[in-house]
Amino acid sequence: MDLYLQLKADLQHGLFAPGTPLKQSEIAEHYGVSRIPVRDALARLKSEGWLTGHGKRGVAVPLLDPQEAEDLYLMRMHLEPLLLERAAPNLNGELLGRARDILDAMETNPPLDAAALGQLNWQFHTGLYRAAARPTLFNTVEQLQRQCERYIGYQNRSLDYQDTSQREHYQLLELLQRGKTDKACTLLEQHIAAAGRVLVAHLSKPRD
Amino acid sequence: MDLYLQLKADLQHGLFAPGTPLKQSEIAEHYGVSRIPVRDALARLKSEGWLTGHGKRGVAVPLLDPQEAEDLYLMRMHLEPLLLERAAPNLNGELLGRARDILDAMETNPPLDAAALGQLNWQFHTGLYRAAARPTLFNTVEQLQRQCERYIGYQNRSLDYQDTSQREHYQLLELLQRGKTDKACTLLEQHIAAAGRVLVAHLSKPRD
DNA sequence: GAATTATAAAATGTATACATTTTTGATTTG
DNA sequence: CAAATCAAAAATGTATACATTTTATAATTC
Question: What is the pLDDT of residues A147-182, one digit of tens each?
Fold first, then answer.
């Protein structure tokens, strides 16, 4: 469990070259553990998209695939509004207030790094989604978000887009506060679609 | 890997009582293997919804939860049309013909059992979806379908609904053949929604 | 010399043994 | 007597050792 987190972090930092098959013994030695926990961690990371099967033998770090990112955001764009729609009736002042606190925390000076922003951003969204009390739907959405993490990674999004994104966040809270659920869901859909477009465009650029 | 399939089949047949925690040693002994492959299989089954974590220790067979089923179908209803929409332009005569063959195979006399019908039904859908060439989207949809398997299980759906379902399948092929992609997607959405309603209604009935 | 088969090496899968954690039951204490 | 603490047990997590499978290399054959 601990190894899983460490491996994921190291994958996120690009410690292992994409395309190269990873060997259990190498990893075991590298982290000073036996192959058993390595197997567990690799299996989990594979199921979460951080690794892909490499033929019959072993696993490899997959390359970043713009189409995969596009699909992930396409799905989130269609699923997350479902959660928000169901959460809306349960969003009381406390929950909305907490969400606002998170947004405020994102606007520090100097600005936070991409990783911290990403984390807060997701906390904002889950804070709202949890109120839907729909664990199954929530879990799937969370899994999709985890897969997206691999793409969001450590690239700093442009400050310009970060501003737009924040504006939309505040707007979303506003709409929810005023009970405009439908409008909020539509905005959320567009918000995710826009994030997807920015990411895919970035990935498709010739030289990364 | 072999153990995974066997365990899943046994879970599907209700060999283990829901709510009762499963112990690795028991399962290992029951299948005549050591605990290592058991751990692997349990982890995978847990990630696929066949088992849930039971506190800090062990896993348990979850009860059938109508709301979970509802969520699963809600998601499928929103995602599968996306696949079909993207598959439509690539659906040539061969693929549509193969899909029709599957439908024909479902109408034997005497009728097939629920398990066989379910398998063919999913083959029909995947045959179409694969043409979208969208592995990420496809995988998520397939995972959702796997989670649904637990609910579809071995309950024979009413013959009445089976008829309706088949009619919709043929209708879907018709629309695709005539290039009416939008109409086909809408029909698919309703088709899944209807299947979900039937299932949830069945699950919510007092005595199962 | 190319292709195919045989062989050795390397990696994964599994069993056994041990360490750690968690639960359970009893015992003590207020 | 209830609650809390401690000890023994049972279950899980991990290391080491072995078996099986897969890949790479060498040898043989046409």
Answer: 998 888 766 677 678 889 999 999 999 999 999 999
Which residues in chain A have their CB less than 8 angstroms from residue B140's CB? 71, 75, 140, 144
Residue A208, pLDDT above cutoff 90: no
Residues 6+ apart with CB under 8 A from A170: A100, A103
**Tally of domains in chain A:** 2
Tell me if A89 is assigned to some domain.
Answer: yes
Q: How far apart are CA A49 and CA A60, in angstroms?
A: 11
Regarding whether A71 and A164 lie in a shared domain, the answer is yes
DSSP state of A57: S
Report how far residue B135's alpha carbon sits from residue B145's, in angstroms, rounded to the nearest whole number.
Answer: 15
CA-based nearest distance B75→chain A, Å: 7
Residue contact B68–A40, C-beta within 8 A: no
Same-domain status, B83 and B33: no
CATH at A56: 1.10.10.10
Across the interface, whether the CB atoms of A78 and B74 are under 8 A apart is answered: no
Contact assignment for B79 to A79 by CB distance below 8 Å: yes
Strand C contact with B30 (CB < 7 A) = no
Q: List all nucleotides in chain D with at least one atom under 7 A from a protein Cβ.
A: 10-17, 21-23
8 A C-beta contact, residue B158 and residue B62: no
Q: What is the pTM of this model?
A: 0.89
